[in-house]
Amino acid sequence: MTQGMTKRSVVVVGAGVFGAWSAVRLARDGWRVTLVDAYGPANGRASSSDHSRVIRAGYGADAIYTTWAIEALADWRWLAKKSGDSLVEECGALFLGEPGSPHLAATAATLTACGVTHERLDAAAVVSRYPQLGVIGLGDAIYEARGGVIRARRAVAAAVTTARAYGVTCRQARVLPPDESSSAPVVRLADGERLEAEQFVFACGPWLPALFPEAVGGRIRPTRQEVLYFGVPAGDGRFAIDRLPVWIDFAAGLYGIPDLDTHGFKVGIDHHGPPIDPDTADRVVGSDAIATARAFLARRFPALMAAPLLDARVCQYENTTSGDFIIDRHPRWSDVWIVGGGSGHGFKHGPAVGKHVTDLLAGRAAVEPRFALAGKSTAAARAVY
User: Fold this and answer.
1) Which of 94, 160, 312, 326 could form a disulfide with 285 if both were Cys (CB 3.0 to 4.6 A apart)?
2) Given its phi and psi angles, is residue 137 left (phi above 0), alpha (psi -120 to 50 degrees) or beta?
3) Are 119 and 130 in contact (CB under 8 A)?
4) pLDDT in tens, 337-379
């Protein structure tokens, strides 16, 4: 930036993973950034909270997400080094599926095309390498060596701290829904204060439909999602992060993370749950979720079938029609950007989302058609896993 030149200004609303990384990237690019969140970074209501999130580049035939995941991992490692915090564990990722799974075949082909190190394992190889894993009914599996785990809540906190170090102003305040019938956006806080900036980025996850009922509305559907943490047997190291990869069972619709930081063995239910209001919903896990997880453990991790439930959390996905992100201008306002639709898989891509947002605002990139508002409907037709 030329000496004496006034920085361009931007307000980023939402301090989850998409908003925090957008703030970091924009500040590094020379913008004067204000980051606003109603409850604070990675709060208990946010989709970016909880202890951990999966890292993986395997995405079936969706090479754009494979490429973004590869790029993002380098930035997560940069953030870990800058913050001095151990944010990433590359314990590997194991993709499980039924015999002849077309999704696993497409995943292997895309990983090969993108140069991602991986192995195809038959059931005998899986049980030889991971005898703690039951393989009845399992087809071939794919092991991605550089998959693993992000310490999610710590990672968002580190991103916000880094944003502050780059000069970002962080505020805890509630932003009111702008009047979408207005010819120009007026962004106000609940106390009436008007926020002024040249550009606005709304990265508010499940709050986007309420903030923009016309532009977004039912194009993003917040759903209630449950994760459970089971206690591993005393003195049994087989389920630790250094002995077992993260895993995704596409046919079962469940995923999990080994015992990380002694929180317990995590089982997440990936089936889309019922609608949720992120402001008012109680976060109490239901008995059906516990029964589903236990039945899965009995089949795939039999040593844990009677494990005690140590912890359980309710978060939310913010699903789009297909599972693709939304990263696009508001249809009425050229200076308002809508960034969301993580759809349960977006956390790992936070750094790549932040880079893309920064390139869009700087005029260095065009809106990716898959992320355009115009391509989203209110019908559920999930295609990204």
Assistant:
1) 312
2) left
3) no
4) 999 999 999 999 999 999 999 999 999 999 999 999 998 988 8
d(CA 57, CA 107): 9
Burial of 367 (0-12, 13-18, 19+ CB in 10 A): middle
Give the residues across from 228 on adjacent strands. Answer: 267, 312
Domains in the chain with CATH codes: 9-48+153-218+322-375 (3.50.50.60), 89-148+221-319 (3.30.9.10)
Query: 319-342 pLDDT, tens per residue?
Result: 999 999 999 999 999 999 999 999
pTM for the model stands at: 0.96
113 by Cβ neighbours in 10 Å (0-12 / 13-18 / 19+) ranks as: exposed
Collapsing DSSP states into helix, strand and coil, what is residue 187?
Answer: strand
Instruction: Spell out the SS3 assignment of 190-226.
Output: CCCCEECCCEEEECCHHHHHHHCCCCCHHHCEEEEEE
